[in-house]
Amino acid sequence: MIRQAKGKTPRRLPPKKASNSQKDPVGVYCRVRPLGAEDEECCIEVISNTTIQLHAPDGLKANRNGEFKETQYSFKKVFGIKTTQGELFEDVAKPLVEDIIHCKNGLLFTYGVTGSGKTHTMTGSPGQGGLLPRSLDMIFNSIGPYQAKRYVFKPDDKNGMEVQNQVDALLDRQKRDSQTTVPKTPTTRRIDPEFADMISPEEACKADGVDEDSSYSVFVSYIEIYNNYIYDLLEETPIDPIKPKWNVAGTPLRNNTEFIPPQSKILREDQNHNMYVAGCTEVEVKSTEEAFEVFWRGQKKRRIANTQLNRESSRSHSVFIIKLAQAPLDADGDNVLQDKNQVNVSQLCLVDLAGSERTSRTRAEGSRLREAGNINQSLMTLRTCIEVLRENQMCGTNKMVPYRDSKVTHLFKNYFDGEGKVRMVVCVNPKADDYEETLLVMRFAEMTQEVEVARPVDRPICGFAAGRRQRNQAFKEELTRRLEERGGPLDGESPTVLNQLLQSFPPLPPCEISGPNDDVTLPRLIEALEKRHKIRQMMIEEYNKTANMLKSVLQEQDSNLLSKENFIQEQRGKLGEKDKMLQNQKNEIDRLEKKSKMLEYKIDILQKTTNIYEEDKRSLQHELESREQRLQREMSEKRRMEARMQGIVTDSKLKWEKECERRVNAKQLEMQNKLWVKDEKLKQLKAIVTEGKTENRQPQRPSREKDKVPAKRSASPSPVPTGPPVRPLHRRSHSAGGERWVDHKPNTNVDLDTVLQPNLPNAIKVNAPSEKALSKCDKYVLTHQEVASDGEIQTKLIKGEVFKTRGGGQAVQFTDIETLKQENPVAASRKRRSSETGPDGEPKEGDWTDVETRCSVAVEMRAGSNLGPGYQHHGYPKRRKP
Ligand code: ADP
Ligand code: MG
What we know:
- This is Kinesin-like protein.
- This protein is of the alpha+beta class.
- 40% of the residues lie in helices and 16% in strands.
- Strands 1, 3, 7, 8, 13, 14, 15, 18, 19, 20 and 21 form an 11-stranded mixed β-sheet that branches.
- A hairpin with a 5-residue loop joins strand 26 (793-804) and strand 27.
- Helix 3 runs parallel beside helix 5, helix 5 (131-143) runs antiparallel to helix 7 (288-308) and helix 8 (366-395) runs parallel beside helix 9.
- The longest helix has 171 residues, at 521-691.
- The radius of gyration is 72 Å and the shape is elongated.
- The termini are far apart.
- Mean pLDDT is 79; it is low at 1-19, 184-190, 240-254, 488-495, 697-736 and 828-882.
- The structure holds adenosine-5'-diphosphate and magnesium ion.
- Adenosine-5'-diphosphate is lined by residues 33-34, 112, 114-120, 314, 355, 427.
- Magnesium ion is lined by residues 118-119, 314, 352.
């Protein structure tokens, strides 16, 4: 902001690095121009409205061995080849114009290689006006009715703005009008067809919120920076015939025309540390056409200078500065307030930079090479400044930014250091030839986007109640209407306020003097005039009183309003802060929401996975259980089977053991009998043979028999008789009833309390068998106890017959085993009951009850019977051998 700080303390805050902490990045836009020729190779593709993609041209790719890949660059916005000048203006320059109208500064520059469309973008051509004519047009469309009369605002020579009083301004205007050389404002006609139709009327636009209680004036300056020299393109060079016609570099001119080489200007810093070109022409313009005409004059001058001085226009920077001065109207709303401190000046700087290509690309030679080097130097400095700025901002460093190294950057210093909006349009030509240069442009542009510039703050310039202009207008209209109502105009005269007031006084008496002696008319006239004078005096007093009163009321209201406005301003600031905070929080919420959505989604997936796994687990568990059950079943089956098998095995083992024993015994007996029979026969034969010789000799037992006698006399009965009986086997007569038993009950036997006891009358009871007892008896019974397979005690009565052995001893031949068994009726329910041994029923009556029968059966069964000995006592008829 360039404004006055002279005199009284300004009511507003000083603009330099104000308390404003809000910053905005430099707005970088990219514009891609169409290819020149159809068959040219293209190396740029617009892939979205913010991104472009560069791809190396074919030749380059082959050379660099694929070193250059496709690269993408993003900008605030990308404008493709079909973008119109109007569309570009809407996005890029319109906000800057709005800013300048609201007292904020702006800088807009185009950057790019020569031929990329910088000038086309900034200036344009007839029918296709660029950003510059459009900006001017918008400014004038907005402030048109509120412009101050020419020369009311007057720039001083220190980059300030003064307000002239009405009279001085009028005098200046008259002076200007008298100078025929200065062209008048072209209100209706278009002077130069070159800038005709830059903007079509339907494209005209206007800023909102223009303060109608201010007065405005536009000033333009146009400078060129070439070889680090500043030239004023609007300077009116007086024709100086004495001055030699040399250019600044000391080279003589091409031809000897009246061309006067321009003098370079210097940069200065004003009181507010703003840079300005000292002594630079600032032309006040009142319309778009006039402004553009001034611009065109500068352009022409530039062209001529370039031709005359053999310069290349693409190597110079051109800067067009639009200054807008605005000041509030006075309390009446009639004139600009005569207070320098109330003047606000904002400016929009439109810069068409030189081509950014390196020197090697231009065919510059000699002094032109030097110049070109310098031109490159300014762009280099611009790059360095941007780099340092970025580094300072990003790393918090405080390096010195080398603005002073070139005029261009020095002029821009205020924008980067102070406040204002900075925008850059990067122009690119998509042709393959420009590829490498375009890459450099892109890198610079990307870097520039990272630089931030302080946002300009709002500063309303109002010091009085708003709506002054309108109120004044309305008042004037109302007054005119009322006066017209009162009297109407005099003949041929326009109704003036004076006329109307005169009419409101009492009429004058006739003032024609009838004669020299007429001393009535004059005194009457004097009296009437005095009366009028008195009335007038009274009216003036009344008027003054009312005016003063009104003034004080108005002032009071003004101060009220001012304080309210200040308050509103304060609140607005606070609101802005709150808004920012809110926005930040909103962003945070958005981010968290996105995150939570993501997490929810993940949870969902995990839930689903868990469900699947659980299902799997359940089914597997189910299977496991069923398998376990099956295993259990199989195991118990196996155990049962084992137990059964065990039983069967022990049973059959026992059975067969007994069977074997029995058979062996039987065989032994049989063999012994046979032996005995043979012995006997042999004896008889011997007796027959020897009868005659020794008739009285007693038959002798064979020696073999004699040897065995001691064995036969063994007291313990052996289950198998070892010695043959003395006489052939025959039973003692039972009929006699004198059957005697040796009842052998070993001491170890347990008394089982059985009901059924063997009844043996006159038996000899022994614990251990003795020869004595046996010799007296012919029957033997052993009561033997043992544990059966089911765990019950079973009693066996082993019966036998006592034989007298030849040796005079006793032998027992076992004939029968009777088994008595007790059973637990509950535990052994599945077991067969030994009905034969039960106390009731028919046990003693069957064939089996008879011991004799039993024994015969036993004997009969001996030969080849399959049945085990145990079965002999279980008298099932079917099991009996027929
Ligand atoms: P620079 O100023 O960057 O050297 P110019 O603006 O002079 O480039 O453009 C070179 C040529 O290309 C001009 O003839 C111009 O009309 C043309 N041109 C540039 N940009 C465009 C565009 N966007 N559309 C059509 N023509 C263009
Ligand atoms: Mg150009």
